[in-house]
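Re: the 77-residue chain
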Amino acid sequence: MRQVQVLGTGCPKCQKLAKLVLAVADERQLEIDLEKVTEIDRIAEFGIVATPALVVDGKIVFAGKIPSPEELASKLA
């Protein structure tokens, strides 16, 4: 099971990324554990400058954008 974190303060783009992650995981039958990190100090610990950001298994895979479903699937698989 992949550990997935969406980093963002809860803005519409951050919410959209979280929904997209869940939709792609469901569509591709991928097992993930999704955590939404909204606290600024925790986001800062990752060194993220722009949100939303996506972390998979402790590695930052996207920052400052919402990836396409295809890009996202390749990082979650």
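The chain has one domain: 2-76.
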